[in-house]
UniProtKB/TrEMBL annotation:
<feature type="modified residue" description="2-(S-cysteinyl)pyruvic acid O-phosphothioketal">
    <location>
        <position position="116"/>
    </location>
</feature>
<protein>
    <recommendedName>
        <fullName>UDP-N-acetylglucosamine 1-carboxyvinyltransferase</fullName>
        <ecNumber>2.5.1.7</ecNumber>
    </recommendedName>
</protein>
<keyword id="KW-0132">Cell division</keyword>
<comment type="function">
    <text>Cell wall formation. Adds enolpyruvyl to UDP-N-acetylglucosamine.</text>
</comment>
<dbReference type="GO" id="GO:0019277">
    <property type="term" value="P:UDP-N-acetylgalactosamine biosynthetic process"/>
</dbReference>
<dbReference type="GO" id="GO:0008760">
    <property type="term" value="F:UDP-N-acetylglucosamine 1-carboxyvinyltransferase activity"/>
</dbReference>
<feature type="domain" description="Enolpyruvate transferase">
    <location>
        <begin position="8"/>
        <end position="406"/>
    </location>
</feature>
<comment type="pathway">
    <text>Cell wall biogenesis; peptidoglycan biosynthesis.</text>
</comment>
<dbReference type="Pfam" id="PF00275">
    <property type="entry name" value="EPSP_synthase"/>
</dbReference>
<keyword id="KW-0961">Cell wall biogenesis/degradation</keyword>
<keyword id="KW-0670">Pyruvate</keyword>
<dbReference type="GO" id="GO:0009252">
    <property type="term" value="P:peptidoglycan biosynthetic process"/>
</dbReference>
<dbReference type="GO" id="GO:0008360">
    <property type="term" value="P:regulation of cell shape"/>
</dbReference>
<dbReference type="GO" id="GO:0051301">
    <property type="term" value="P:cell division"/>
</dbReference>
<keyword id="KW-0133">Cell shape</keyword>
<feature type="binding site">
    <location>
        <position position="327"/>
    </location>
    <ligand>
        <name>UDP-N-acetyl-alpha-D-glucosamine</name>
    </ligand>
</feature>
<dbReference type="InterPro" id="IPR013792">
    <property type="entry name" value="RNA3'P_cycl/enolpyr_Trfase_a/b"/>
</dbReference>
């Protein structure tokens, strides 16, 4: 088992370049299945989930090469239309293969996907949408078999603006006969990036980033080249690291517009934020102040993926803050670990009441999921003493060598291997 040791209390200073977004790269890699031929995707982050996605693509028969942050996927050699169960279980994003394989080959067999344990995370909306597009779906022995002659466009309304469902259906509809509309679609920037990739492949998608997306089906797509957008959740995490350590850091390669409400809440907390095109400077000198309410919501609302890391900042902000999680039922697992570090947090169902304390103290804590892990890293950077964090496999799903980046900003963090 590996753990991360972090010495708290060192202000972070310097510059960091934000890597490409995991949540854009994963569906885009899956979308490369839609066209026979070699697509080139740049600024693909070097993360565990990306390696799992590339193994899945290879298991289907695609040729994948990743050098640095450039991935090339040649989908002309795909010969298998089933994703092995052990790979499906490794991450939620494995479900992104369902729409593209079905649309191109007329058949696909997958099992229920795994992923972070932050709630029940069913896939009913994905299946309902594919059925509306004419797929025959049979669920047996934990597997889901989908078949179709050719998908047909239809009007779909999502009961919840689900990010993954919007992406899966948008990919599937590109090769359907006729026009599909997706109402109550999710509007996250990663969906817009996927639509840009698909349109470069020859798809006819309009309205991505808005409430209703329209996809006019085409006969065939062609491979293309694309650069992934910067990761707004990683950017937000480093902004919080700068803020909690009373540091002064500069983030390069960010799209500030993707972080609107996060920047507003940081300013409310007394953090100085300066934006200049694709650069954000964060400086934290005065007192950190409690924030009246943070309520997670689909984009452009406050991102659920930054709820836990932001809560770490609030643990040492003066006054009482309220944090409500509306997207996932079990996304407060960081609370018990933050309490071990001295945080004063009470939880009532999906709302946390955070009473700021004067300081956190180091402890041994466990990351239960990716962003809970990020929250513990943020807290450890400010805590008195040396914090030890286990569960690093979760953190490595979303952050490239996090300790190296932190150390380049003046932190002291290192991995310890133990039996
Ligand atoms: C790889 C990726 O992009 N992951 C992101 C994506 O996850 P993901 O796409 O899984 O999240 P969704 O937007 O689909 O989930 C939103 C809500 O809808 C529910 N739901 C979803 C699908 C379904 O078929 N039925 C159903 O009930 C979920 O349980 C959840 O309560 O969006 C989440 C919400 O912004 C982020 O936290 C994740 O980081
Ligand atoms: C929950 C997340 O990822 P996934 O949907 O891949 O589990 C996340 O990125 O915070």
């Amino acid at each position: 088992m590996e753990r991360l040791a972090i010495v708290g209390g060192r202000p972070l200073t310097g510059s960091v370049r934000v890597h490409g977004a995991k949540n854009a790269a994963l569906p885009i890699l899956a979308a490369s299945v839609l066209a026979a031929g070699k697509s080139t995707i740049t600024d693909v982050p070097d993360l565990k989930d990306i390696r799992v996605m590339s193994q899945i693509l290879e298991s289907l028969g695609a040729k994948v090469s990743i050098e640095g942050r450039t991935a090339q996927v040649d989908s002309s050699t795909i010969h298998t239309f089933e994703v092995p169960e052990e790979m499906m279980r490794q991450m939620r994003s494995s479900i992104f293969l369902m729409g593209p394989i079905l649309a191109r080959f007329g058949t696909v067999r997958v099992s229920k996907p795994g992923g972070c344990t932050i709630g029940s995370r069913p896939i009913d909306l994905h299946l309902k949408g594919l059925k509306a597009l004419g797929a025959n779906i049979e669920e047996k022995g934990g597997y889901i078999q989908c078949t179709t002659e050719r998908l047909r466009g239809d009007h779909i309304y999502l009961d919840i603006p689900s990010v993954g469902t919007t992406e899966n259906l948008m990919m599937a509809a590109t090769l359907a006969e006729g026009t599909t509309t997706i109402g109550n679609a999710a509007r996250e920037p990663e969906i817009v990036d996927l639509a840009r990739f698909l349109n470069k492949m020859g798809a006819k998608i309009s309205g991505a980033g808005e409430d209703t997306i329209t996809i006019q089906g085409v006969e065939e797509l062609r491979p293309t080249r694309h650069t992934i957008i910067p990761d707004r959740i990683v950017a937000g995490t480093f902004l919080l690291a700068g803020a909690i350590t009373r540091g002064d850091i500069r983030l390069i390669n960010v799209i500030p517009g993707h972080l609107g409400v996060v920047l507003t809440k940081l300013r409310e907390a007394g953090v100085e934020i300066k934006v200049d095109r694709d650069i954000i400077n964060v400086r934290s000198r005065g007192e950190l102040r409690a924030v009246d309410r943070i309520q997670t919501a689909p984009y452009p609302g406050f991102p659920t993926d930054l709820q836990a890391p932001f809560m770490s900042l609030l643990t040492i902000a003066k006054g009482s803050s309220i944090v409500s999680e509306t997207i996932f039922e079990e996304r407060f697992k960081h609370v018990s670990e933050l309490r071990r570090m001295g945080a004063n947090i009470k939880v009532d169902l999906r709302t946390a009441f955070v009473q700021g304390v004067s300081e956190l103290t180091a402890a041994s804590v466990e990351a239960s999921d990716l962003r809970a892990g990020a929250a513990l890293v943020i807290a450890a950077l400010a805590a008195k003493g040396v914090t030890h964090i286990t569960g690093l496999q979760h953190i490595d799903r979303g952050y490239e060598r996090i300790e190296d980046v932190l150390n380049s900003l003046g932190a002291r963090a290192w991995r310890i291997k133990s039996g």
